[in-house]
Task: inverse folding
RNA sequence: CGGGGUAUAGCGCAGCCUGGUAGCGCAUCUGCUUUGGGAGCAGAGGGUCGCAAGUUCGAAUCUUGCUGCCCCGACCA
């Protein structure tokens, strides 16, 4: 992609409303634009990142056996009256009326709807287990939206719903999602710690929040420092193997970790002092097991092997991709701008032509861009008629992992400069070496 | 929802106290010179001063009401 043909409205100055670094950088790098309080338009670069994140989530959900569908954003109030949550949800729910004066709502979550879908088709225990998920926009009318997409009113959510015949089978479904979440966040370069959590309006007895540590996090969290060195489960993990999953979940829940609402200072004080971590955290995922909370009132039942109808055991599993964009920036940035992990960068490679119009730089830049694109990588080629300094600043701000700087000085020696955004390391290489170096590194990420 | 703040060009701000019809920096456009870490000079365009009512010969400025947005607290993917 040629930058001169792209839409990348970067801001040199920071809009005053942005308090935290991720919000500032998202506005400056042209990722989002606020349209109302807590409501954002996703600009091209931001959408690319969002799509990268949802792609990783999809891969890991599918790997864990969840099946994708797509439910609507608008739901009927009647559905929510069945579960009793229409009244219970309060003012967080955006309620609207259609032209026939029918009461509708913009969905804050989808337990009712998925239960309705499930009960209309599934009759037998033989069709279980089942886990359906979708990635859809949600609306929660927060009293005070803030921090950009970190706490917005409209936000993208991946929500999965599991159905099982027994609580034990339900626990296994829960464990599958637990393990999938560990892998998902690790692939985005994040260390997410599962913490005992309150289940809030979703309800249920068993619940974990996945928290990443960050100074600007909204919640106060407490955990054992060994979590920071745990390795995520491998790609070839067998999701059908109950024992294997259980041992992973046991390991990740064996040490103390809790949000402030669930904090037990007594238990925390038993940890050796040097191993105690007291920090702030960002919630990037939340999983629940709530048994028959919805299946009972909404009559989502299946016939068991004895022919008797029993309500299904359910769980739900959320990840906020839009919030993750901000969370990743909080975890990975410097003075100059964003530092995207290779796995979710909007473009993997940025090429800066330091002297547009110079036949040698033009030629080399175009050849490089072409080669990377042919090899299946995404390239942003800065072919604007700008000064070198402005190009360096732009590339650093938008945080592409690999930069290739092509100027007449270097080319006189037959060299271009390859810069790794993450470390700031620079190397002078021939264009051929540069291509090989970057392709090899990126292939490793993909593998 | 309580408390506080703010609204002037795309962005950041001054002007308001003490009324006389709007200015600065960045960005944008044109030209020339520049070209390896956000260039210089010259010129140009762009604003119903959040909205409404009021006071006044005259309102960005004073008064009242409304709205948007931001911050602090209680709630949350």
Result:
């Amino acid at each position: 992609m040629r930058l001169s043909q792209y839409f990348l409205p970067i801001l040199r100055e920071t809009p005053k409303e942005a308090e935290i670094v991720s919000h500032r950088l998202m506005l400056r790098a042209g990722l989002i634009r606020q349209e109302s309080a807590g409501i954002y338009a996703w600009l091209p670069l931001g959408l690319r990142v969002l799509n990268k994140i949802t792609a990783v989530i999809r891969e890991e959900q599918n790997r864990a056996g969840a099946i994708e569908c797509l439910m609507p954003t608008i739901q009927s109030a009647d559905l929510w009256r069945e579960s009793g949550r229409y009244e219970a949800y309060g003012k967080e729910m955006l309620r609207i009326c259609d032209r026939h004066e029918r009461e509708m709502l913009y969905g804050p979550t989808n337990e009712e709807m998925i239960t309705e879908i499930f009960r209309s088709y599934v009759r037998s225990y033989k069709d279980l287990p089942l886990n359906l998920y979708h990635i859809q926009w949600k609306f929660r009318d927060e009293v005070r939206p803030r921090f950009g997409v970190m706490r917005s009113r409209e936000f993208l959510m991946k929500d999965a719903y599991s159905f099982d015949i027994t609580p034990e089978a339900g626990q296994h479904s829960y464990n599958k999602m637990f393990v999938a979440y560990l892998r998902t966040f690790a692939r985005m370069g994040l260390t997410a710690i599962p913490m005992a959590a309150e289940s809030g309006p979703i309800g249920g007895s068993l619940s974990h929040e996945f928290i990443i540590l960050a100074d600007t996090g909204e919640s106060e969290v407490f955990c054992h420092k060994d979590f920071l060195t745990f390795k995520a489960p491998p790609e070839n993990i067998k999701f059908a193997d109950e024992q294997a999953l259980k041992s992973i979940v046991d390991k990740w829940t064996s040490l103390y970790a809790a949000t402030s609402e669930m904090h037990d200072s007594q238990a925390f004080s038993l940890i050796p002092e040097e191993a105690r971590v007291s920090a702030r955290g960002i919630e990037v995922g939340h999983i629940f097991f709530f048994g028959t909370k919805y299946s009972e009132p909404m009559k989502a039942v299946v016939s068991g092997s004895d022919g008797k109808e029993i309500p299904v055991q359910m769980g739900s599993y959320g990840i906020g991709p839009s919030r993750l964009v901000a969370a990743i920036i909080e975890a990975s940035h410097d003075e100059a701008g964003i530092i995207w992990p290779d796995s979710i960068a909007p473009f993997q490679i940025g090429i800066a032509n330091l002297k547009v119009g110079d036949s040698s730089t033009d030629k080399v830049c175009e050849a490089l861009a072409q080669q990377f694109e042919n090899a299946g990588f995404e390239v942003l080629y800065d072919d604007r008629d700008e000064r070198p300094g402005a190009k360096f600043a732009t590339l650093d701000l938008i945080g592409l992992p690999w930069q290739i700087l092509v100027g007449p000085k270097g080319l006189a020696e037959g060299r271009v400069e390859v810069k790794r955004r993450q470390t700031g390391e620079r190397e002078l290489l021939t264009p051929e070496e540069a291509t090989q170096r970057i392709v090899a590194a990126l292939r490793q990420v993909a593998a």
